[in-house]
Fold this sequence. Notes:
Layout: E1 3-8, E2 13-20, E3 26-33, E4 38-43, E5 57-66, E6 70-80, E7 90-98
Parallel strand pairs: 1-7
Antiparallel strand pairs: 2-5, 3-6, 4-5, 6-7
Keywords: Protease inhibitor, Thiol protease inhibitor
GO molecular function, one term: peptidase inhibitor activity
Amino acid sequence: xxxxVKAIKAGTSLSILLPGLATAGFRWFVQISGTDCVxxxxxxxxxxxxxxxAGMGNEESFMxxxxxxxxxxxxxxxxRAWEKEGPAxxxxxxxxxxx
Length: 99
């Protein structure tokens, strides 16, 4: 999995928008290393589109908040809650530097 490199300032936030498939039972789960410098929270900034296709869910939005200078790895994995084994259907890895 390739990493995206991002830098944010302490006290600021980075918005992450991920494609949703909640109507098919898929949700995004977060793994964080470096919780001393960042926190990740779901956000209500998801886009509601009246033109969504059947079986597609609203996009899911997360906020990565910079708490203090340091480095963190944030991995998002899209999977069904009851299917914890095996590969996720989608993933995104961010290398975050808080300055």
